[in-house]
Amino acid sequence: MSGSAELEALLGGSPLEVAPLLLGAVLRHHDVAVRLTEVEAYAGADDPGSHAFRGRTPRNAVMFGPAGRLYVYFTYGMHHCANVVCGPVGEAGAVLLRAGEVIAGLDVARARRPRSSDRDLARGPARLCAALGLDCDQDGAVLESGSLRLELPATRLVDERVSRGPRVGLRHAAQRPWRFWETGSPWVSAYRPAAPPRGAPDARG
Q1: With 32 labelled, which of 80, 103, 123, 192 sits at a CA distance of 20 to 30 A?
Q2: Cα–Cα distance between 93 and 6 in angstroms, integer?
């Protein structure tokens, strides 16, 4: 089995199945590597918090597979966020990479984020992309080899080391416990719930 086929098979489960498996995985881009400590699962048509909730668009097409690709989007006119695509082809699914620990290329990551402490270099989805040097040029890239690759952990974290809770900053389906993080890790982002829309109750999935 080729590298891309093996990765696609490992990531072929639903976002909820794949998300906790990514804790402890290492994402490498050129000289910088980040060990993942926090992720969030996003489904498609059944998830109002997902970019794919209303169907396929040019922006979210990568989410529909195949698994083992990187889905990168630009948000708020200033930040990039990266997701690992998972699930069967044709069913949108992705896991947002929320936070991690820089374990290689520390000097490069510091140069990219000169005002950050080492703890905060990749502590948050936009910071993680900045530290790794990821942008929309990597949207759709295969996470198998070369300058960009995902290395899954040899063994998954035991349940006692995995916490889960609501997703961060969403107005829709925010309370679904689809965020997973390494219990007690100092490289986990701060939880901030989104305010409900003015004059309307907070939407739930």
Answers
A1: 192
A2: 18
Q: How many CB atoms lie within 10 A of CB 155?
A: 7
What is the tens place of the pLDDT at every residue in 86-125? 999 999 999 999 999 999 999 999 999 999 999 999 999 9
Closest CA to 81 of 67, 95, 61: 95
Q: How far, CA to CA in Å, does 190 sit from each of 38, 88, 120, 123, 168?
A: 11, 32, 11, 9, 9
Lowest mean pLDDT among 61-75, 126-140, 142-156: 142-156
Please return the burial class of 112, using the count of CB atoms within 10 Å of its CB with bins 0-12, 13-18 and 19+.
middle
| DSSP-H helix ranges across 44-165 | 106-112, 125-132
Bridge partners of 28, per DSSP, are: 33, 149
The residues with which 100 forms a beta bridge, in sequence order, are 36
- 7: tokens are 């990765």
